[in-house]
Structure formats: structure tokens, C-alpha cells
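Revision sheet: C-alpha cells.
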Amino acid sequence: MVQQLVDKVAIITGAGSGMGRSMAELFAKEGAKIVAADINQDRLNEVVTAITTAGGQAIASVTNVTKEADVVAMVQSAVDHFGRLDILVNNAGIMDNMAPVGTLTNELWDKVMTVNTTSVMLATREVLKIFTKQKSGVILNIASVGGLGGGRAGAAYTASKHAVVGLTKNTAYMYENMGIRTNAIAPGGIKTNIAESMTGVDQEGMARQNVGMPLSLNPVRVPKSRRPLCSSVPMQLVTLMGPSSLLMAAGPVINNIVQPRLRQRAISWCEPAF
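Predicted:
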């Protein structure tokens, strides 16, 4: 099988566990050189060891994605170690506590928006310094089905992922003529350690959200491997993330169809994104 990402260099945030780790291992299997970024050093070491033991190339970047200095250092580490950068995957994120606006605290709002949305802007802005000069690059944002509707999470998480969708659309439009592709994947319910970020769950909010997210009551686990829907890496990621996930192709033309006609449901897109 031909590897699709040979010699490409990819940064993946939140790579220490869950979807981030699975993506790092998948990209490495496809030939990419990985900068695995996460706030947890021990988990990063496990991921890098797993990739290098399997014959891949990877380095660890201990990164707090909400701190600009850390993000700058993360991007620079890719250039310093591998000599280039081709792909950014904005995957790091946290859940809220299912609280609706009426019981949402300022502290939780600020925390969720900073981790889930501001971090995407910071990393995207930094890699664009490289991508615009080389006239190429791929930005893949991990959004959520919670960014497409209102019945999947609390107010803070929902708003943060809607913002990621909007940022994806704007970035795709603004930089499409410079050879830079920006897409997002909107996963459904997946059983990962993101639940560790949920504390003080709002019971009324949870009860109401359970009505709106039946697919998340029995979320799929992130598998080590699964038969891809088609040959492209993006569709392998959608398959990996479960049956309720969507690939949101934010570029102007997909399969010769103008993006507004797709209305975010480009699940049939099988063109390589990298």
C-alpha cells in the first residue's frame, strides 16, 4: 500500500491520548514525521515510543496550547528537528460540565473557550507564518457535532465548537488562493479520556442533553485500526472517529461541487487532503 504522507511533517495537538494519539499513529503509519504535542509529558513519551518502535519518526513537544509562547515553541520544534512543516492538526480540547447558560460560570466559560477555540487560533496563526511563505500547508481542526447543533453538550462547549467551525470556514476562504487547505472533522460521541475534564456535572443540563445526543449514550471507543471508507487519510480519520462523525470540507470546491451546496455534509469526499 502506498503511504500518503511520506516526508510530510505534522504537528498534532492533544496527541498524548485518545483521538490525538490515534491520529499521530495513523499519520506516522502513512509516512509522516510527527510532532506530538500535549501538556502531559508521560503520555507523550508513550506515544513517541510507540511510533518510533513501529519504525516511524516522532518527537514530543510539551505544550500548553493556551499559551502563545508554548505554541510558538511547538511550531519551531518542527522546523528545528525536521526542517519543515506541512500539516497542523488542532485536536486538543476539553469538555464542559453540561451546564446551560443559566448556571454557567464565567470561569468555566473562559476556560473552555480558551482551550477549545483560542488555542486553534493561536496555532493556526503561527503555522500560517510558514504556510504562506511556502504557498502550501494543511490545517485540520477537530470540531464536534456539538458545533453543528445545540443538543450535544453544555453551552460553553457548544459555543466553542461552533466557533471552531466558523474559524475553519474563514481560514479556508482567506487562504485558499495560497495553496493552504483548511478542513474540520466533527466527531460524534467517542469514549476517550476527555471525560477527565468534566467536573461538577450539571445534572439538569446532563438530563436535557441526553435527550439531544442519543448517539453519545454508548460512544464508540477509539480503535487502533478500522477498515477505511476510502483510500484518503481524511476519510480514515472519519471512520476512526465513529459513525456519527462528519468531515466538513471548508474549501471552495469538493468533487466539483461549490461548497455552499454541500452544507457541511461532505461525507462522500474522498480526495486526499494532504
